[in-house]
Task: structure prediction
Amino acid sequence: MTHIAENLALITAKIEETCQKNGRPPAAVTLVAVSKTHPIEAVEAALAAGQRMFGENRVQEAATKFAPLKSRFPDLELHLIGPLQTNKVHEAIRLFDVIETLDRPKLADALATEMKKQERFPRLYIEVNIAAEPQKAGVLPENLDAFIALCRELGLKIDGLMCLPPVDQDPAPHFAQLRLMATRLGLAELSMGMSADFEEAIAAGATHVRVGTAIFGDRDKPR
Ligand SMILES: *Cc1c(COP(=O)(O)O)cnc(C)c1O
Result:
């Protein structure tokens, strides 16, 4: 726990430095601290250090940790960065401020219905399967335009795109590709870059980097 504040300061400094190098204002990049698998004490340590944006990849785990914290920290912002099943949509909309993993028509439909019902409107990013990997979630690049059109028909406002490039490749061309898509579609937010590659992502135009390990340390089981 003791290293969390130090790690946050280090990452924040690196983000600022990378922004400067690339002629971007530091405020253009938001650090989303990915606290999945880490206990609430780790989140508390990050909060004490001033961190307010967090990412979790499971609805139930996020609810257990963050529901009590959200009332204590009204400016806390929670991002869902893992797959969302339609039977968890109700709880996800109650809890998350940003859902980064909108990736299929059935989910778009369920989100549209439930958002109207709850009158709560988390910001939405579409997850793009940027390298068309068969095992990976996300909308295929060639289906993106049609999917966005469908979302808009359902009344969903899309704010950005998110991707996870292949683990065994240079991420830079994939980041560049995602940025081109966002620019073409007029989408402002770009969630890309993790512990190992957030600097490349910032150079390519990321507005949100999702950093876990470099802040909270290793996870027992990678997911
Ligand atoms: C776990 C996870 C991260 C954080 O990865 P680190 O390598 O620990 O920084 C970022 N994005 C997604 C979608 C994740 O699942």
